[in-house]
Specification:
single chain, 250 residues, alpha+beta, 5-stranded mixed sheet, two-stranded antiparallel ribbon, 7 strands, 37% helix
Length: 250
């Protein structure tokens, strides 16, 4: 396959970026997008040019590291599929691919296709955990959890934290991400003791770091984990519940 690759090049966070066009003449349909970038980088290194910086890790669709925007769509052409599972068989010989980093105010570009997703880490740090004293956690099978409850929690916990939902949202909102976290943690009994405290901190951090949600639902189309749109409602629901709990406690 012969492909024209238009790639965003930016030397550092302070530099002014630009698109640079390259040609790859020996791509194959079996290649994933990161493998295409590997091949392009081989060409650049052989020519004595600077290779393209991009994030990559497991390449199995579970780490959320490798996200880029392809032809204006976070992750690429195939819906609900991470970048590393997007293959060139979805494109035709001679196609033009425009590759750029996830675009969101909360994701500043570090270099080329690499963005800083610290804002997502701040949401996790604000409440994405269960506080348990070391050495006191009970065995996993001592607390019975109904099958449907466990399956619901697992569905929401499938989020890989890639940030595609934020990049796809016209507002740059993170409600699908935060809602999945809140839904997962509030469904299981282990997360219920800190439910109100978690909701207050997670919602506050989400509002501080990201834009408001207008329920455009573009986030659902690109989410590799298939997180349902119902997760978005969890943000306001858990915030309202936490406010009521605080009123009662006061």
């Amino acid at each position: 396959m012969q492909l024209t690759i238009e790639v965003w090049r930016q030397e550092n966070a302070e530099a002014e970026g630009r698109f640079v066009t390259y040609q790859v003449d020996d791509a194959t349909p079996e290649m994933s997008l990161p493998e295409l970038l590997d091949r392009l980088n081989d060409q650049l290194v052989e020519a004595g040019d600077e290779p393209i910086a991009f994030d990559t890790d497991c390449r199995e669709g579970i780490c959320g590291t490798c996200g880029i925007t392809v032809n204006d769509v976070p992750h690429g052409k195939v819906p609900n599929t991470p970048t590393c599972r997007q293959h060139l068989r979805s494109y035709d010989d001679g196609d033009h691919l425009k590759l750029e980093p996830f675009r969101a105010a909360s994701f500043p570009v570090v270099r080329d296709l690499v963005v800083d997703r610290t804002a997502l880490d701040k949401v996790i740090a604000s409440g994405g955990y269960v506080s348990v004293d070391a050495g006191t956690a009970p065995d996993a099978d001592t607390r019975q959890i109904p099958f449907k409850v466990a399956e619901t929690a697992l569905d929401f916990s499938a989020c890989i934290g890639c940030g595609a939902c934020i990049a796809a949202c016209p507002n740059g909102a993170a409600h699908l991400f935060s809602g999945a976290l809140l839904s997962h943690m509030s469904t299981l009994p282990q997360g219920k003791p800190e439910r109100a405290k978690r909701a207050r901190s997670v919602v506050a951090t989400t509002e501080e770091e990201f834009g408001p949600c207008s329920v455009y639902a573009e986030c659902v189309e690109v989410c590799p984990a298939g997180i349902p749109i119902s997760a978005i409602s969890a943000v306001n629901r858990e915030a309202a519940r936490a406010a009521i709990r605080r009123t009662k406690d006061d």
